[in-house]
Automatic annotation (TrEMBL):
This is FAD-binding domain-containing protein. Keywords: FAD, Flavoprotein, Oxidoreductase. Pfam families: FAD_binding_3 (PF01494). It comes from the Eukaryota.
Length: 307
């Protein structure tokens, strides 16, 4: 595709935010749109995989909610345990069903969300230009007050409006001097400041693993989550894949950027229910991780772009 030299709206970033913005503009009659992304293709990993009712309602307005619900799992509650027993369940569906047609938490990998959004975009005749990394921006470059965005490739696009949807390290935000921070500046509890995430397969799909709802284990200063993902959503196997997450207190040091299976297993065993660990001293029927499809870490923080 040839990149247009001029447009009414330029959307920089084709993740869920950028594509949703473009779809919303199309739904409201704005047709002259260019959307670009720095990546050659969308990542095939799960990343953000929980979609709430209000988000589904917004996605319904751009024609994407039904397909996402079809591809995802509906969690109606969060089951909370300590290491030995069930403590309580936080019910979702009954609390929400009087207010929304989506009274559940939708569990769907981000790669599937992006697939649905981009398919919808293409069905309306708009395609993402890739790979185009924005490196600069200048305002009022002509008598019409257009803004000029330049790319690493040397290409330039003029636009009346620019939407910066290029993530937490947004080039568009930075070149415009727009700050991005926590307006409250409240400190984060050290015990939850670092979180490890991974998509894993276990040695068996035993009954004590969640089949649809999310499951949490909390004790002392530790917490962990297990959330089932739709089968065949991340690879072609029929293995049941689970998202796991657990905290790493700051006193234990920073977790690796891509935690491997031994690291994940050791820390999972230290924080999860005894009957889900791989330690035969704790669990007479050990449950082991056999495959890691993706893993990452993040630091808990809040930030908002300056007005």
């Amino acid at each position: 595709m040839v990149l247009p030299e001029q447009t009414t709206v330029l959307v920089v970033g084709a993740g869920p935010t950028g594509v949703s913005a473009a779809l919303s503009l199309l739904e409201h009659g704005v047709k002259d749109i260019v959307i670009v992304d720095a990546a050659e293709r969308t990542p095939d990993t799960s990343r953000a995989m929980a979609v709430h009712a209000a988000t589904l309602e917004a996605l319904e307005s751009i024609g994407c909610a039904d397909k996402m619900v079809e591809l995802g799992l509906k969690a109606s509650q969060l089951d909370v345990w300590d290491r030995k027993q069930h403590i309580f369940s936080l019910e979702v569906t009954k609390s929400l069903e009087a207010y929304t047609k989506y009274p559940f938490l939708l569990e769907i990998p981000q790669n599937k969300t992006e697939e649905v959004l981009e398919e919808r975009l293409e069905s309306l005749g708009l395609y993402v230009h890739r790979p185009l990394k924005a490196v600069g921006m200048k305002g009022d470059v002509d008598e019409l007050g257009n803004t000029e965005v330049s790319f690493e490739s040397g290409e330039v696009v003029k636009a009346q409006y620019v939407i910066g949807a290029d993530g937490a390290r947004s080039v568009i935000r930075q070149v415009n001097g727009i700050s991005f921070g926590d307006p409250d500046g409240l400190p984060v509890d050290d015990s939850i400041a670092q979180i490890v995430l991974a998509d894993v397969v276990f040695s068996d799909d035993r009954e004590s693993l969640p089949k649809q709802n999310a499951q949490a284990c909390v004790h002392d200063n530790a917490f962990s989550l297990i959330i089932p993902l739709p089968k065949a959503s991340l690879d072609d196997s029929q293995d049941q894949i689970y998202r796991i997450a657990f905290n790493i207190p700051g006193a234990k040091g920073a977790p690796p950027s891509r935690p491997d299976l031994p690291y994940l297993q050791a820390h999972f065993d230290a924080v999860q229910r005894f009957e889900l660990t791989s330690d035969p001293a704790q669990n007479p029927k050990p449950l082991r991780m056999t495959r890691v499809l993706w893993s990452s870490r993040f630091r808990t923080h809040a930030a908002i772009a300056e007005k």
